[in-house]
Amino acid sequence: MHRTATFTLLAIVMLGCQPLPTAVEAVNLTNELVTKTAATPPSKGAGICWADDVTPAIIETVTEQVQIRPEVLDAQGNVTQTAVFETKTAQHIIQDRREIWFRTPCTDEMTVDFLSSLQRAFKARGYYTGGLTGRLDAQTRRAIRLYQEPLGLGSDKLSLAAARRLGITVGEFER
């Protein structure tokens, strides 16, 4: 009886649970990036601000040892000449360099209070060790880059999507 009640309670709890988003869905900023095709941002309007940056090319270097002469054995199976190998290196571009636009909080929203909240959020996550100055200084920009890079945006300019993921909301979120 006790086991049936426990199983029923567990089933009820499980039915009420919502599936969590996958880690990629929850943290990926790359879907916020727009390829830069003109000198002006993709859209304009009150409260819509953009930043531009360059995503670097990603190059894969593969190094391998290639045998150019096999070993030579005598009649008894002893090695008379060792094998000769050569190191070959090849590079392949995995992702091209790309100029991009992405939504960012507008300049008038980057107040001392907002920047202090941003620094506090980074400090709580271990990205920022400085004082809560409310200034967009080098240490804050470094924290922005450290936070956004694993999410797909290696920029020291704060994206609006990253600010929202940090729990800091500003402006409307329209494209």
Spell out the blueprint of helices and strands:
Blueprint: H1 2-16, H2 23-27, E1 34-35, E2 49-55, E3 58-69, E4 72-73, E5 79-81, E6 84-95, E7 98-104, H3 112-125, H4 138-148, H5 160-165
Antiparallel strand pairs: 1-7, 2-7, 3-6, 4-5
DSSP summary, beta strand count: 7
- Tally of domains: 2
Number of helices: 5
Class by SSE composition: alpha+beta
User: Which of globular, elongated, flat, extended, rod-shaped describes the shape?
Assistant: elongated
Biggest sheet character: 3 strands, antiparallel
Physical arrangement of strands within the biggest beta sheet:
1-7-2
Beta-strand percent range: 25-35%
- What is the ordering of alpha helices and beta strands? HHEEEEEEEHHH
Radius of gyration: 27 Å
Low-confidence spans: pLDDT under 50, at least 5 residues? 9-26
**Terminal residue distance:** 57 Å
Mean pLDDT: 84
Helix content: 25-40%
Key terms for this structure?
alpha+beta, two-stranded antiparallel ribbon, 26% strand, 5 helices, elongated, three-stranded antiparallel sheet, 175 residues
